[in-house]
Write a structure and sequence with these properties.
Layout: H1 3-16, H2 18-30, H3 39-73, H4 80-99, H5 103-126, H6 141-145
Helix pairs in contact: 1-2, 3-4, 3-5
Length: about 150
């Protein structure tokens, strides 16, 4: 069997049996058999992993900020479930940042965008008019991640 045929077979595994493709790719990497790797799909998967981490960070930050907004602007409805959600989202954001410290600078870049999404979601969930929530994020990143801020 030629090298091209073997590479094509490995590449077709990607479409036919993703788990087997992963096992085969890992085996080839462990063997340092780089010539038979399915580079195109491997690159796509690695890039996808990075996008997935960033998406998870964004989603958790949106949920966290939305709950902080609810606590600030509907304090009379403060519930234990809101506090639990805030604590869990903070824990998960910190875990993501611990595992991928380079995402800290990404977090700084997306905080404003995440706030705007959280603002709309808070308005939808609370049924409060959107103008109730400031257009500019009232929370610093330090406050958002501070375990003592709105966690009573």
């Amino acid at each position: 069997m030629t090298m091209v045929t073997e590479i094509n077979q490995i590449s077709s595994l990607y479409e036919q049996d993703f788990c087997l493709w992963i096992e085969t790719t890992v085996k080839l990497l462990k063997e340092r058999n780089l010539k038979q790797l399915d580079y195109d799909n491997l690159i796509e998967e690695i890039e996808g992993m990075g996008r997935s981490e960033r998406r998870e960070l964004e989603n958790r930050l949106i949920v966290l900020i939305m709950h902080l907004l609810k606590c600030k602007y509907q304090a009379h409805k403060l519930s234990q479930s809101w506090i639990i959600t805030i604590k869990e989202q903070r824990r998960q954001v910190k875990k993501i940042l611990k595992n991928s410290p380079s995402l800290r600078s990404y977090l700084d870049n997306i905080i404003s965008e995440c706030y705007h999404s959280a603002r709309f979601e808070a308005s939808e969930e609370t049924k409060l008019n959107l103008v109730t929530f400031p257009e500019i994020n009232p929370f610093s990143l330090a406050e958002i991640l501070n375990d003592e801020f709105f966690s009573t």
